[in-house]
Amino acid sequence: MAAETPVTAQMQIQLEIDPQTAHGVYANMAMLNHNETEFVIDFIYVQPQAPKAVVRARVINSPKHMKRLLLALQDNVAKYEAQFGKIDVSGPAPHLLPVH
Questions:
Q1: How far is CA 91 from CA 4, 57, 60, in A?
Q2: What's the predicted TM-score (pTM) here?
Q3: Above 90 in pLDDT, residue 86?
């Protein structure tokens, strides 16, 4: 008797987004922290030449979800670079440039 292969049902989820969230927020910096059970990403806006930064959004993920996010980001960056060319990340980040 052959072993049965489990079948995973695909569930479609309808996404709903309110107008304010749909507009998004700009962030030019992110900070990442973790403990044994979760990862926390703070998306931050650093205004040029300002001594203060503002956390615009905080996302908390489980380790499994963070790994899936990492893989999705890697896949999307690879697709972007295949279409538009390599992303140059040499040099300091714009918010770390010296102030004159």
A1: 55, 26, 29
A2: 0.75
A3: yes
